[in-house]
Please model this.
Amino acid sequence: MAQSPLSLIRFRVIFIASWMIILADHVMLLHFFGLPWQAAAVDAVLSNILLLLACLLVMIVLRYYLPRGQQYINVFALCLLLTIAWLLLSKWLLGLLLGQYEGYKLLLHNSLSIRFSLAFLLLGFITMVSILWYSQLEQKEQEERKKDAEKLAREAELFKLRQQLQPHFLFNSLNSINALIGSRPQEARKMVQQLSDFLRGTIKKDETQWVNLKEELEYLQLYLDIEKVRFGNRLATAIDIEEITHNLKLPALLLQPIVENAIKFGLYDTIGETVIEISATKEENHLLIKVKNPFDPETSSPKQGTGFGLNSVQRRLYLLFARNDLVTTEAKDNIFITIVRIPQA
Amino acid sequence: MSKVIIIDDEPLARSVVREYLQQHPGLEVVAECGDGFEGVKAIQQHQPDLILLDIQMPKITGFEMLELLDQPPAVIFATAFDEFAIKAFEAHAIDYLLKPFNQERFDKAIGKWAEQQAATTVPEKNTQELLEAASLSPSQRQRIVVRNGSKIKIISVNDVWYLEAADDYVKIHTTEGYFLKNKTMAHFEQSLDPAIFVRSHRSYIVNVQQITRIDPYEKDNHVAVLRSGAKVPVSRSGYAKLKEVLGL
Model:
């Protein structure tokens, strides 16, 4: 449940101080109108204690029941009723206690409208402050919930994006293993190992969201080895990594879909041997990774070739860095280049 | 002895098929191909009784390769994962094999083929139906593969200006002249993206992105003028369709 504003010491002090001031004012005013100190004090203490109780009641009600839209009229009615009840009760009690003082009854009678107005104003003020306080608390809570939900969704999406595995790759790899079992069982066994290590990597939970480039390349190599078994001589890779980039960080499993995309694009768009070039450099405060694959400008516009692989990479980087400009592609002659920039902390 | 051709871009995938075929002494592998271009050549050269065909291959898919053949042979597809293919096969293919498959499953597919051979059903019809079914699936074609003499040409649909009916063929007019394809207008009308290609006339399908203006022509009729200057007839109902697509 929401905390009452009086739970803050600061507010409690202000509240009590204000009450004392009003109390003192009340006494002085009545004395000024000719009431003895003692009678004035009794009147002030009694009226103000009752008013204090009414204020607390309003605060408690609002703590559990915050008006919305049309319901503000209910709150107004509550204030009005409370004020009237307060007035009647205090009038009755004061009449009993102070009736013996000369002229008091007249004074009480004449001051009823002023008492009513002041009490209503005060109650209204307390009501307004309470409503503001509680709705602000509610808003804060809502925002936090929203933030939590967004964070959860973001994490789930990131996990899903990391995990994305092309079923084509999996089934074709299994098919290759199936073929090797008959002819070259040793190689089949090796490929099962590689595929297992690769799959283990994709389902790893996010303890290792960030890895350094060297680890990522080791993981990528598993993937490349499997693809080379699948495609035989058609697939060749050239990897050129600057020493200085070895310890730069990047999100785990980011490279594999980029390279997968390049391989697919390269292998399915050309005939004959396909060389995939992968290079990494450091540029200012960024890790810069380039992946090149051949393509045939006659039959495919580079736009078509970017496909799902790069969309998911772009989305991941956007979720991590809130930037959309980290993945770029260019096509030069018969070479398609995917460039990824990873900001370094 | 029946002749078989294996067409798959992965060498190991071909080798497993060859291995399984050893159990079928009546079948002889006359060629192995790594892509659809080789496939077309080998099929024309050997006239096989059966082909084992992968779908995702370099340059052109297994479907596109079959489209290039005048008389496609009986086909058993072997594919890793392809939802839309599965749908098509269920209706028309001799069989489809999901990779990886075992000897038993392979034998069953060959058995089905042998049965159909014995029943003297026409395998081409099956394959034709299969192609129709495949091209009618919701995935719209992004390109059209045509054969021009011995050359195979892949046309991106963006380069197509308009299509024109010509007897049993469809004339595909493009930036590089026209190509003929042994298909019906209805086939193209259904397989091309309806937001871009509109049947403007009984004998014409036009690429709306190429239209610069539409002029009235005789009574009730119109003519669409393309960027290239070519003029495409527009019938009354075609005009209504064009207006809808162009949002006029």
